[in-house]
Design goal:
The protein has helices spanning 3-12, 14-21, 28-51, 70-99, 106-134, 139-165, 169-190. The protein has 195 residues and is mainly α.
Length: 195
């Protein structure tokens, strides 16, 4: 199964997706998936709002980047931030599995989290574009909708962890929720809503 087919399989059959992902080069495929997600955010979310002349609804946390230029900066920062989140959450998952004396494979965890970021991130990018076009309510409602979409990330990650490295489903769910909880403040610090 090629990269594109694997990506699409994650939407319709998480078990088959996990079984196929297990056979793919790790962590290379996870890295490319996480990088692709970051580049998609840059080009499909932040570049359009920058060209539309929009200003982020919350000020820049980086004092050297003015708020009115922050969407332009995110064109370059988004992939770096999202790759950092990918590495951080994968590392945390690996450490927790080791501390609980469960089997772990860091390369496979990187593949799982990279593809999960791509699969769910693609839906979020489409949703954000739709939200922008229809004039969605505000950044907080959009953020809540992202958390609802993240339920699919929990499902994909849990199934993949169970089928690839034999992590019990209950622990996979907990690890997924911890990953979201850790990535959320980091994303809030650097990323900005397109509305």
């Amino acid at each position: 199964m090629n990269y594109l087919k694997l990506w699409l399989t994650a939407y319709i059959n998480p078990r088959r997706f996990a079984d196929e992902l297990k056979t793919k080069p790790a962590p290379q495929w996870g890295f490319f998936a996480a990088l692709q997600r970051g580049l998609m955010d840059s080009l499909l979310t932040y570049l359009p709002v920058f060209f539309l002349g929009r200003i982020p609804p919350t000020p820049s946390n980086l004092s050297f980047i003015p708020t009115e230029n922050y969407y332009g900066a995110l064109i370059f920062l988004a992939p770096v931030v999202l790759l950092t989140i990918w590495l951080t959450t994968s590392s945390l998952t690996h450490v927790i599995l080791k501390l609980t004396l469960k089997r772990s494979d860091f390369d496979q965890i990187l593949n799982i989290s990279g593809f999960t970021a791509l699969v769910v991130g693609s839906i979020i990018i489409l949703w954000d574009g739709l939200w922008l076009i229809i004039g969605g309510m505000n950044q907080y409602t959009l953020g809540i909708s992202h958390l609802i979409i993240d339920i699919w990330a929990i499902i994909i990650t849990t199934v993949a962890l169970k089928r690839i490295i034999n992590v019990p489903a209950w622990l996979g769910i907990i690890l997924s929720i911890i990953g979201i909880a850790v990535s959320l403040p980091f994303a809030i610090m650097f990323m900005r809503s397109p509305v």
